[in-house]
Amino acid sequence: MSLIFSRQCEYAIQSVLYLALKHHGEMTSIRELAQRLDIPYHFLGKILQSLTRKGLLLSHKGPAGGFALGMPPQDITLFHIVEAIDGTDFTRMCVFGFSECNDTNPCSVHEQWSVLREGVYQMLISKNIAAMAKDTKQPAFRIASGMSNVSL
């Protein structure tokens, strides 16, 4: 599990990366995503619904249905996914959860956390899914991009 994001958010990022390797508009079943990424099927369904409501994914029902990216992968940043699933509280919250932690009334790690938090934020807004999907080395993603002759 990530230090910063929920398991749900991690699965959302993995799913969007996987879909980014598919041909534009190609629908991918939830079953394929769950199997290839080793994500519980019903949990993944809820995650994909959230991403669809936010416009990051398209969803079609029926035998030829499934999920596809709702916008070009180069226009989707990690921040979009994190915002859709976990929200953006991490961009302003105290690492210890203190409600009164700020520059005037800091916790014991306020200054260091502020620097780290800003670094994480900058990484999230600067990384787009197209570039990340292209650079990933995970085995499940090679199948999505056609780099394996394993049949789905």
What's the total helix number?
7
Tell me roughly what share of residues is in helical segments: 40-55%
Order of helices and strands: HHHEEHHHH
Q: What oligomeric state do these chains adopt? A: single chain
Specify the overall morphology: elongated
Strand order of the main beta sheet, please? Answer: 1-2
Low-confidence stretches: 147-152
**Hey, roughly how much beta strand do the residues contain?**
5-15%
Taken together, the total number of domains comes to 1
What's the CATH superfamily, by name? Winged helix-like DNA-binding domain superfamily/Winged helix DNA-binding domain
According to CATH, the fold-level topology is Arc Repressor Mutant, subunit A
- Beta-strand segment tally: 2
